Amino acid sequence: VCQADPGDAETWFLLGAINGQLGAFDEAEVCCRRVIAIRSDVPLAHYNLGIAYMEMELFKEAANEFKVAMKTVKFEFDCYMRLGLCSMGLKAFDEAVAFYLKALDIESRGAGAALKDSTVGQKVRMISSIVRKKGIMYEIALAYEAGGRLSEAEEIYGSIYDMDPHFRDIEAKLASLRKDSGCIPLGDGLIEVELL
């Protein structure tokens, strides 16, 4: 199809999306680059190219594409999250935290708007926002932990535990960090005390 009209950005875009879904990220990259060469104003092409780069562990290239895509408000949250993941891949943990905090800010603004509206759809979005908030906080804690900032990681893991003690592996994360710090782990049915 692309041979018939190599200037058809939409066909290249769809071909790139299909390749990405199939896990053929090298081919997806070629297609996304072609879309951008034809029409550089397609933020989704930059976003998809960023994902392809991430899958190939080309984190710097991926970050550049996400920075272009995030100029469209629709992609801002997802781009900040992906920039955080790229920073984690590059072992730039403080930078990852900064990107995750920006994503958390965007998510918090969305949750506030949902609280003002009383429709069922808005309430469902608010619950979804709470789940996403826990996920963002978890990523922030992972970044702190990877960067050796264990007390900050423990504090955030603890906040997540307070919201949802069954979230992912939160109890194991806290137990691991508290074991290293001399605290008694959660979930053992015992009253927690800190020995002085």
Kindly describe this structure:
This protein is mainly alpha-helical and about 200 residues long. It is about 75% helix and about 0% strand. The protein is built from 9 helices and no strands. The protein has helices at about 10-20, 25-40, 45-55, 60-70, 75-90, 95-115, 120-145, 150-165, 170-180. The longest helix is centred in the last third of the chain and has 27 residues, at about 120-145. The chain is elongated.
Walk me through the topology.
Layout: H1 9-21, H2 25-38, H3 43-55, H4 59-69, H5 73-89, H6 93-116, H7 120-146, H8 150-163, H9 170-181
Helix pairs in contact: 1-2, 2-3, 3-4, 3-5, 4-5, 5-6, 6-7, 7-8, 8-9
What is the structure about, briefly put?
With 196 residues, this protein is mainly α.
Based on the model shown, name its key terms.
single chain; 196 residues; mainly alpha; 74% helix; elongated
